[in-house]
Amino acid sequence: MQLATLKLRDFRNYRKLEAEFEPGFHLLLGNNAQGKTNLLEAIYLLSTLRSFRGVGNSQIIHHGQSAFFAGGVALGQTENNIQYYWSSNQRKLKLNQKPIRRLAEYLGTLQTVVFCMEDLHLIKGSAKSRRRFIDLLLTQTQPGYLGILHRYTESLRSRNALLKRDSPDVLLLDSFTQELISTGEKLMMCRRQLVEKISPLVRLGYRKIAPKMEDARVEYKPSVREDFVIELNRSRERELRYRSTIIGPHRDELKLTLDDKPAVHFGSEGQKRTFSIALKMAQAEYLAGVHGVPPVLLIDDVMGELDAERRAGLMPLISRTGQALGQVFMTCTEENWPSELSADIHRWRVEQGLLRRA
Ligand SMILES: Nc1ncnc2c1ncn2[C@@H]1O[C@H](COP(=O)(O)OP(=O)(O)O)[C@@H](O)[C@H]1O
Ligand SMILES: [Mg+2]
């Protein structure tokens, strides 16, 4: 997959940007606070309509302005022209000049995988970060998944609201329970199947970055051990006491181990960093397998966090993805890896919201 052109207006510190990107490996070089991450954020926004910084779109608008525009041409199995205009009271998304109303019609137009400092949360953060990782990958690969997830979340919310009452209506509780179970079982099945497929990819990815090192594994640990119906019934009394649904996919965990020991407790910082990158590489590889084209990789400031050996392990992986008809955008302040790994790089300079070829 490829982002062939990018156009920005009043997007963070970019007043106006128009750039063309060939396939391959693009290196965005520049000092701090020049707009490198902002550029990756813009590409990610075209992919998901969200910021990977976890902020609302209003923060993205150039200070003092009232709207931003982001657009471009994405090349995958087909060519698509994307136009996204956002202001606090108006949003317009167009695909090939036609207005898009439902997110499901749009998602998949530009597939990306982002690598950033915050990925460390995948290892060190709460189970929620890991569920989000799995849910995103399922959303990127299974058309119906997002809808089921929304229905599950909705029934969970209604059910919990009911459980907060002093004497919950039993019939109403049962109807929410049924929806919770039917959607929850689908979520668990999808998650289990996905984790089985990506676990070997994570293991191999880890080995490539850190050769002759630990065995990295990912295991699905659902909150429901065997049967959702039975276990939910069994927990009814405790639910009434805690006034909340205490088992179900909203409590699922992803167990990450290095040589069978929990990565969060026993891994060094470097090992955790490597693990988080291996998870993202697995995401990219899985997407490429499902869609037949590799996603665009957005790599932010990751190199500086790795030692020389791991940098040397990671570079060939990244550049290979860039060559196989894919595209990679990587930011850094300096090229701190062996120069023989830097063949065929498109270099750009980022300076105060301006982008030029270096
Ligand atoms: N909404 C905004 N309007 C104008 N400038 C912004 C906005 N948001 C961030 N910036 C500016 O963008 C710069 C940071 O860009 P960033 O891409 O994070 O830098 P880096 O090159 O270090 O990755 C800072 O100078 C910041 O002031
Ligand atoms: Mg940055």
> Sheet with the most strands?
6 strands, antiparallel
Strand order of the largest sheet: 2-1-4-5-6-7
Give the beta-strand count. 15
pLDDT averaged over residues: 93
The SSE order reads EEEHEEEEHEHHHHEHHEEHHEHEEE
Low-confidence stretches: none
Helix percent band? 40-55%
The geometry reads as globular
Distinct compounds present: adenosine-5'-diphosphate, magnesium ion
Rounded radius of gyration (Å): 22 Å
How widely separated are the two ends? 24 Å
Strand portion, in percent?
A: 15-25%
Give the helix tally: 11
Find the structural class using helix and strand composition: alpha/beta
Key structural traits:
42% helix; binds adenosine-5'-diphosphate; six-stranded antiparallel β-sheet; binds magnesium ion; 25% strand; six-stranded mixed β-sheet; 358 residues; alpha/beta
Description of the molecule:
This protein has 358 residues and is α/β, with parallel strands linked by helices. The chain contains eleven helices and 15 strands. A hairpin with a 2-residue loop joins strand 10 and strand 11 (261-262). Helix 5 (145-163) crosses helix 6 (170-209) and helix 6 (170-209) crosses helix 10 (269-291). The longest helix has 40 residues, at 170-209. It is globular. The chain starts with a strand and ends with a strand. Residues 12-13, 30, 32-38, 59-63, 331, 350 line the site of adenosine-5'-diphosphate.
